[in-house]
Amino acid sequence: MVDRGASALSLPDDWPAHPDPILALNRMGSFDWDLDSGLFHMDAQAHEVFDLRPDEFDDNPVSLAGRVPSTEAHRLDALVAQAIKDGSENYGTYFRLRCRDGSLRWTHTQGYIRRDETGRPRRIIGIVRDATQEMGELEARREQAAQDEARRRQTNVVQLTTAALAHARTVQDVIDVLKDTHGLTHLGATSLVMGLVEAGRIRLIAEGPAGSFVPGTDITRIDEPYPMSEAVRTLTPRFIESPQEFADRYPILWPHITDLKITSAAYLPLIAEARPIGAMGLLYSDRYGFTPEDRNVLIALGSSIAQSLQRAMLYEQEKDLATGLQQAMLPRTIPSVPGVDVAVRYRAASAEGSLGRDIGGDWYDLIPLPGGRVGAVIGDVQGHDTHAAAVMGQLRIVLRAYAAEGHPPATVMARASVFLHELDTDRFATCLYAEADLSTGVVQVVRAGHIDPLVRQAGGRCRRVTVAGGLPLGLSAEFGQLDYPVATLELDPGDTLLLCTDGLVEVPGADLDDGMQALTTLITGGPTDVWELADLLIDVAEERAGDDDVALLLLLRRVPDAQQPGGRLQQHVAPGDPEALTQARHMIRTAVGAWGARERSDEIELVADELITNALMHTEGAAIVTLRVLSGSDRRMRVEVEDSSSALPRRREAGESGVSGRGLLLVDLLSDVWGVEARGGGKCVWSEFVVRERT
Minimal CA–CA distance to 90: which of 2, 218, 188? Predict the structure, then answer.
């Protein structure tokens, strides 16, 4: 309003005798203010600017008080006094004057201060002009700039909110975004309410601020006289521009919210795919009315919120469905097995992104088996969706069935691979199956592309058990490589077998071996209680917040109260596989020692070796060796070797080389009793050894 930088006026010294014609042409009036006499002379055009007749002004500045409001007069006096005081040559400003009809209009003045040779101010010569149009245009530009800024700010809020809503996965995420400082509060809303349409009713899911809940509105019918109900019912926004309008239109609701000091409100229907899914209300306490721009912004924002809300609702429905499916596929309970403590845990992935990513194909299972044995399974189907969970459930069932049928671990794994290959799916799965004899602690392990198991000894030391594995399930059948080597290990009382999926081990950017080493270190220093250890491991996975599922099974062999008779181990030996034959010998030697028959270990191992060798040499298939303890009047250990040939073994004389033909002679010599049994399409050659009772 003040123009201190106005250029100096060029007025003749004999003003007003010869007024500048340029001033007249531009409808500018001029004045000459004699500071010594105090007289304020104005020309005719200046009189018109001040809306004065010549006879109404006596050249006394005080006479202008009727035209210049006091506040403006004080400001003008201060401006002139300051210009004189600081030695300025000129000044300029806009001010308002009151016309004859009482209206106010803008006026602009510029003055040039004339001083004598001592610097003392003697005269002020200047101009005045009507600035109504100029100030009107300036005000219009300011208003337009303010509107543009408000529109930019509102658009920015819409963009920020829409961008934030793009990351909202759940309904609560949507609510949190809207209540965040970068959300709708930037539009000045005091309170936010939101409801979802469910079965012809509106269920309130968000309200604020605290203490603003209206009793009886948590669930309302769409036909009730509430603003959200009306917005849903009519599919049109409801803008309430004053408290009186609110009270008149919604007399049931208004008495309950008067304490919030609401001055206006906007209720928006949330419409997705041409149907209402809910409504949102914005309550204001510092504004009255909504401009067309305000309404357009809020309607656009409501559309964006509706899309995000629908996406979140679909996500939660998919998540509930997938979680329910996965829970149905995983064992509901873990059976109680005498002799072991078992802890299982499952953690869903926390990956951002597509629907259903909170589930996957990781699973665990515990299978009680006859003869004091138990099977432990851990596996991971490729993918993180409902299909992976469905495949996982089918695999879990068939693995349990094959194990319960009595098949050895390698056969269980091979049959499961064939089953997955024959399914109408392109998924494969990694798996590890461990069959433990709890009376001896002997564990047979087969691995299909899965990570190795870990064993923590009773003293706390943890080690990784390297198991030679085969291809993942499904792939091994596809490529015709169904051989799964069997590794044998022994769990002493107090030892813990740990099976897990790679989500517990893998860390982005780190080597798998480093992850396994870190896990063994963590377990070594972890609690001795198997359930507390499981909690620790799953908590670590939670803190890591990885994008893969985690399944975990811990099996601790308890110290037995008393030695129990019985026991059974079984292993598949493929033809032409010397490693499998070595593993079978190791299994027999370990089991015989654990079952208290160490004094006959050499005899039993030698007989078993002869029977397995005969089966492999004289048949075209594999051999299945079974070792079991029989209790009765005397305690016996029985070795069975089953093959697919129905031809019965026969004794032969030793050849000239002195090697061939001695097999059955050794069996007959070393065994207490032996025999042959028909088994469907094959036979079983068995041998029994009487062993002393364990003390």
Answer: 2
Give yes or no for a contact between 577 and 663, defined as CB atoms under 8 angstroms apart.
no
Q: How far is CA 607 from the centre of its chain?
A: 60
- Euclidean distance between CA atoms 91 and 110, whole angstroms: 6
Q: Return the pLDDT at 440.
A: 78
| Residue 481: pLDDT band with limits 50, 70, 90 | confident
Instruction: Name the 3-class secondary structure at 391.
Output: helix
CB 491 within 8 A of CB 427: no
Contact 378, 410 (CB under 8 A): no
pLDDT, one tens digit per residue, over 263-278 is 999 999 999 888 899 9
**CA dist., res. 347 & res. 325, Å (int):** 15
Q: What is d(CA 82, CA 112) in angstroms, rounded to the nearest whole number? A: 13
Residue indicated by tokens 């004794």: 651
**The tokens of 194 are what?**
């939101």
d(CA 162, CA 308): 8
Q: Are the C-beta atoms of residues 452 and 520 closer than 8 Å to each other?
A: no
Percent of the chain with pLDDT over 70: 87
pLDDT tens digit string along 104-146? Answer: 999 999 999 999 998 899 999 999 999 988 888 888 888 888 7
Token code pair at residue 452? 């190795």
The residue among 226, 237, 171 whose CA lies nearest residue 201 is 226
Q: At 214, which helix (H) or strand (E)? A: none
Alpha-carbon distance of 329 to 391, in angstroms, equals 9
CB 473 within 8 A of CB 428: yes
Say whether 632 sits in a helix, a strand or coil: coil
Asked whether the beta carbons of 456 and 495 are under 8 A apart, the reply is yes
For range 19-47, the mean pLDDT: 82
Beta pairing, strands 219-221 & 201-207: antiparallel
Per DSSP, 258 falls in state: G
Does the pLDDT value for residue 82 go beyond 50? Answer: yes
Given pLDDT bands bounded at 50, 70 and 90, which one contains residue 461? Answer: very high
Q: Looking at the predicted structure, is the pLDDT value of residue 34 above 90?
A: yes
CA distance 681 to 607: 24
380 contacts 410 by C-beta, under 8 angstroms:
no
C-alpha to C-alpha distances, 94 to 2, 72, 89, 140, 239, nearest whole angstrom: 6, 9, 18, 16, 40
Task: Evaluate the CA torsion angle 217, 219, 224, 227 in order and state its sign.
Answer: positive
- The C-alpha torsion from 156 through 157 and 159 to 165, rounded to 10°, is 160
Q: What are the angstrom distances between the C-alpha of 83 and each of 93, 112, 152, 462, 539? A: 12, 10, 40, 90, 76
- pLDDT at residue 455 tops 90: yes
